Amino acid sequence: MSKPLKVALLGAGVVGSQVARIILNEGPTLEARIGRRLELVGIGVRRLEAERPGIDPALLTTDLESLVARKDLDIVIELIGGIEPARTLLLTAIANGASVVSANKALLADDLGELSRAAEAKGVDLYYEAAVAGAIPIVRPLRESLVGDDITAVMGIVNGTTNYILDKMVSDGSSFDAALAEAQQLGYAEADPTADVEGHDAAAKAAILAGLAFHTEVRRDEVFCEGITGVTEDDIAAAEQMGCTIKLLAIAKLTDDDRVIVKVHPAMVANKHPLATVSGAYNAIFVNSREAGELMFLGQGAGGAPTASAVMGDVVTVARNRHRGTASHRGSSSSSRAVAPIGESEAQFYVSFDVVDRPGILARCAGIFGDHGVSLRVVQQSYLADREGADASGFAARLGVMTHLTRESDLAVVVEELRRSDFVGSDVRVLRVEGF
Ligand SMILES: NC(=O)c1ccc[n+]([C@@H]2O[C@H](COP(=O)([O-])OP(=O)(O)OC[C@H]3O[C@@H](n4cnc5c(N)ncnc54)[C@H](O)[C@@H]3O)[C@@H](O)[C@H]2O)c1
Ligand SMILES: N[C@@H](CCO)C(=O)O
Ligand code: NA
């Protein structure tokens, strides 16, 4: 009988504890699928004394460096998160001949190229399905199933925490803070939830998705990123009035001159668009490609057990490769497409602002848009005379304007000019719009 495959697990938190449970409880099933038994030989943790039901304390160690330095490991699963020591631990594991599985998008968004090259040079696997959109198979479809096609755009909801918060604010009228606390309690949020609410987690995933989709390397700092902390109750109400829902979107597309636009921002999504109905911690991703056309992937984007499902899919795949003595190389990026500046990106925008109530003001506002080649699609006016303070400020009406497709740089000039005009209030709000 062949020897078991030796597995080390780094981290036994929300995801790691679920991965440990599956490896320890589902041994015979996993063995049948792999053709070899998996043996969990060590679990790297921060605190030995924490309560870990079902886990033999003899497996635990706080010395992660020594664990990954073992020469007899077949697979190292990294679920501690963060950049260091995760990066060094993975590179050490690879250098010692282990294949690696990680869910660490923060690390992969910057170091995927280096880790891939190290794995390729050593002839071992690097798999990371759980790093993007939790349980949803999206890394493998982009890396394998669609690699014979040409992808033109990827757009989706890739952060469960923010989708949970926005959904709760809209459907239950919850406060931002209460909804965030629930998302943390349910195990969706990052160790530091700023990464979720400021869009950094989604931006890391967008970098990974863009790199995979367009066969290039995209770094996290090349992703335009705006989170949901600036989304106001007024924005939510304005979206509702326009028949839209606010979602945090990650978007990656190719420009006409073959560069990559990659961005994360809240957007008003038309209620008729399937992304508008994605609720709770669910994620969804649309892919457009030349031959396949439109594809949509939907499922749980966060949470211990759903994420462990994606990790275990990678573990079984990597274990099968080890059993056969092979590794499925990702291959270096085959294109060197550059990332285009956000100013060159195009979107529809919803711009809202207070105006004084005088003859000709609507025309003057429309003129500012027109002067910069920005075409208007919908114009709404609501009367604010009854609003507290409206008379004192002199701004008695609020305009809401939805544009046709507009370059970011042109819209920025329009907003600047509106803010400078004495007939427009200083609170000029801008939301991007999708699917309208
Ligand atoms: N929770 C989710 O829904 C989810 C989904 C997809 C991906 N991820 C990713 O999975 C990884 C783990 O996430 P999590 O939610 O399980 O986080 P977590 O904070 O619950 O677990 C991480 C564990 O690693 C331990 N740890 C951290 N640094 C350590 C070190 N240097 N030495 C020993 N132990 C250390 C922590 O004590 C903690 O128990 C992260 O990269 C995260 O981004 C999480
Ligand atoms: N914090 C992340 C976990 C999944 O990557 C989220 O909320 O989507
Ligand atoms: Na995934």
Walk me through the structure:
The chain has 436 residues and is α/β, with parallel strands linked by helices. It folds into three domains: 5-133 and 305-324, Rossmann fold (3-Layer(aba) Sandwich); 139-302, Dihydrodipicolinate Reductase, domain 2 (2-Layer Sandwich); 343-434, 2-Layer Sandwich (Alpha-Beta Plaits). The chain has 15 helices and 17 strands. The chain has helices spanning 14-25, 27-34, 64-69, 86-95, 105-122, 139-145, 160-171, 176-185, 194-197, 200-214, 233-241, 304-324, 361-371, 390-393, 408-420, and strands at residues 5-10, 38-44, 60-61, 75-78, 99-102, 126-127, 151-157, 224-225, 244-254, 260-270, 282-289, 293-300, 346-356, 376-383, 395-403, 406-407, 429-434. Strands 7, 8, 9, 10, 11, 12, 13, 14, 15, 16 and 17 form an eleven-stranded mixed β-sheet that branches. The radius of gyration is 24 Å and the shape is elongated. The mean pLDDT is 95. Bound molecules: nicotinamide-adenine-dinucleotide, L-homoserine and sodium ion. Residues 129-130, 132-134, 136, 138-139, 310 line the site of sodium ion.
